[in-house]
Structure to design on (350 residues):
């Protein structure tokens, strides 16, 4: 999903460029905001298909590219299909076409209570335009969004029906996500080991990929706020527990932020996290706290720094299932599923 900010221009949230880029600008330079999807749409290159592409379609098909804005881009493409890579005007970056379209999301204004904002939003999303400051004006230089919406109502409704014919299914999926959390893999119900494996992979990913990003500033014009992003990975189980604990308004908020651009969302949420939470590192072993020698040995095994003494200690605990003192009711761990099934069948038959 991708979030499209469709507020009126003077009410739209902007994100400042990193401080390192701001320092390079002249004192009177007003180009201080990072390009969002709306600004990128304005800077799309000229071509018959791209000129007729509305903002909804542009956001659905095009996203950030890892290519440098100074990279050479092959602009030759079939005029009947959208180009796979586009170079924005004025050197403002490169975007690539998704293999499958994203699902655009935006705030739903009330047609009765917020008529002006609603009409502006429909014009902004479902008709092609280049300059918001001029394309939505009438001959007198005014912005009668309601009147302009009525003039182009049929065109807007036809485009909206073509693009959002699955909107009810999307809404149902989002409501289900808010109520029940992300869907589990069906195999998890039959194979808990798969869930544990994914959880372990997420933990390793978090340990390896957690890093400090450059300080950036978030702004809601004209207020600015400096924050530092700290990306982290959540396990599926943790995410489900968090979502289930939210109240109704908080669940609506999760729907909105789940559609936002990951980079913009990380900047915003990092500020909330930094202001309201503190990180605490747990360094005391709790499971084996009553047996420190055993706990230290397990740590050495985990990091492959075990000693010969550790090996001897473990081997001294080997016991035959035929022994009179063998603990048959103890928890058993096996290397293969066949051994697990065989042991479970034996225990169930008793």
């Amino acid at each position: 999903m991708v979030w499209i900010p469709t507020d009126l221009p003077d009410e739209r949230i902007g994100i400042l460029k990193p401080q390192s880029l701001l320092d390079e600008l002249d004192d009177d330079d007003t180009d201080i905001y990072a390009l969002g999807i709306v600004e990128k749409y304005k800077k799309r290159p000229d071509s018959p298909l791209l000129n007729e592409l509305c903002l909804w379609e542009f956001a659905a098909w095009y996203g950030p590219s890892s290519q440098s804005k100074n990279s050479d881009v092959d602009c030759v493409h079939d005029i009947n299909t959208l180009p796979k890579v586009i170079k924005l005007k004025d050197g403002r970056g490169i975007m690539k076409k998704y293999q499958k379209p994203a699902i655009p999301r935006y705030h739903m204004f009330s047609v009765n209570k917020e008529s002006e904002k609603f009409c502006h939003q429909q014009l902004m999303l479902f008709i092609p335009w280049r300059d918001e400051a001029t394309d939505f004006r009438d001959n007198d230089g005014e912005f009668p969004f309601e009147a302009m919406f009525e003039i182009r109502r049929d065109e807007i409704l036809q485009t909206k029906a073509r693009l959002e014919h699955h909107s009810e299914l999307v809404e149902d999926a989002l409501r289900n996500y808010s109520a029940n959390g992300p869907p589990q893999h069906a195999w998890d119900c039959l194979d808990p080991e798969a869930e544990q494996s994914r959880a372990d992979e997420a933990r390793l990913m978090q340990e390896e990929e957690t890093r400090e990003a450059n300080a950036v500033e978030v702004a809601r014009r004209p207020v600015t706020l400096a924050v530092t992003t700290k990306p982290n990975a959540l396990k599926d189980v943790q995410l489900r527990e968090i979502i289930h604990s939210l109240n109704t308004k908080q669940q609506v908020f999760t729907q909105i932020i789940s559609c936002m651009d990951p980079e913009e969302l990380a900047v915003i949420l990092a500020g909330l996290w930094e202001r309201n939470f503190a990180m605490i590192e747990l360094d005391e072993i709790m499971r084996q706290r009553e047996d420190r020698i055993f706990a230290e040995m397990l740590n050495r095994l985990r990091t492959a720094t075990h000693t010969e003494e550790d090996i001897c200690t473990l081997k001294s605990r080997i016991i035959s299932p035929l022994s009179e003192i063998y603990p048959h009711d103890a928890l058993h761990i096996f290397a293969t599923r066949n051994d697990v099934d065989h042991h479970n069948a034996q225990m169930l038959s008793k």
About this structure: Confidence is low (pLDDT under 50) at residues 211-230. Residues 139 and 171 are 39 Å apart (CA to CA). The chain has 17 helices and eight strands.
